[in-house]
Amino acid sequence: MGLILITLILSVGMPFVNKIKDRNTILQTKNILFEVDKLVREVDLEGVGSRRPFFVDIGEGDFLIKNEGAEEKIIWTLISKEKLGIESGNSVGELGPLIEEGSLKIQSKKVGQGFEISLWLDYKDIIDIESNLKQLSGQYNLIIEHRQTGGNDYVEIREG
C-alpha cells in the first residue's frame, strides 16, 4: 500500500516539479541574456579596448552565438513538455507569436511531444558580433570586448 501511494504521489507530482524547474530555468536564462545584452551594449558604446568579464552557467538548453552571414544573434533554446505560458503554433514546427521584452525576443514552436522555446538577442544592423564560440553548455568565464581589425569595429565574445 505504501509503495502504491509513493508511486501515485510521484506520478502526479513530478510533472509539476518539472514544469516549475523549466519555468525557473527560463527566468534565469532571461536574466542572463539581459545581463549579456547590457554588457555588449556598454562595451560597444565605450569604444575600442573596452572589455567586461562575464561568468555564465548553462545548466540546461542550448546556448548559441550565431555570427555567420546576415545573423548576429545570441540564442538560447530549451525543449520542454510544457508550454510554460508561451504560446506555440497549432501544428508541429509552426511558430507561435513573437514576444518582445526590450531587446529580448521569445518564441515557441511545437515539436513532437513538447515545445521548443527560444530566447534570443538580435544585433543585426546594430552591433557586429564576433565569436569563435558556437554552442555552449556548462560553466564559462567569458570576455566581452570591443575590438577593431582592419578598420572594422566589432564586439568579440570569447572564453577568458
What does this structure look like?
By secondary structure, the protein is of the alpha+beta class. The protein has one domain (2-159). Helices cover 28% and strands 43% of the residues. The protein is built from one helix and eight strands; from the N terminus they run αββββββββ. It has an eight-stranded mixed sheet with strand order 3-4-5-2-1-7-8-6, covered by helices on one side. A hairpin with a 2-residue loop joins strand 3 (99-101) and strand 4 (104-111). The protein is elongated and about 75 Å long. The model has no long low-confidence stretch (mean pLDDT 87).
Describe, in short, the structure shown.
The chain is α+β, with helices and mostly antiparallel strands. It has one helix at residues 2-46; strands spanning 51-66, 73-80, 99-101, 104-111, 114-122, 129-130, 135-149, 152-159.
Q: Which structural class matches the secondary elements?
A: alpha+beta
Task: Give me the count of strands.
Answer: 8
- Total helices: the number is 1
What is the overall silhouette?
elongated
Straight-line N-to-C gap:
56 Å
The SSE order reads HEEEEEEEE
Strand order, sheet with most strands: 3-4-5-2-1-7-8-6
- Tell me, rounded to a whole number, the average pLDDT: 87
Q: What count of structural domains?
A: 1
Describe the sheet with the most strands: 8 strands, mixed
User: How much helical structure, as a percent, in the residues?
Assistant: 25-40%
The proportion of strand residues reads: 35-45%
Q: Low-confidence stretches at least 5 residues in length (pLDDT < 50)?
A: none
List the quaternary state of the chains: single chain
The Rg value, from CA coordinates, equals 19 Å
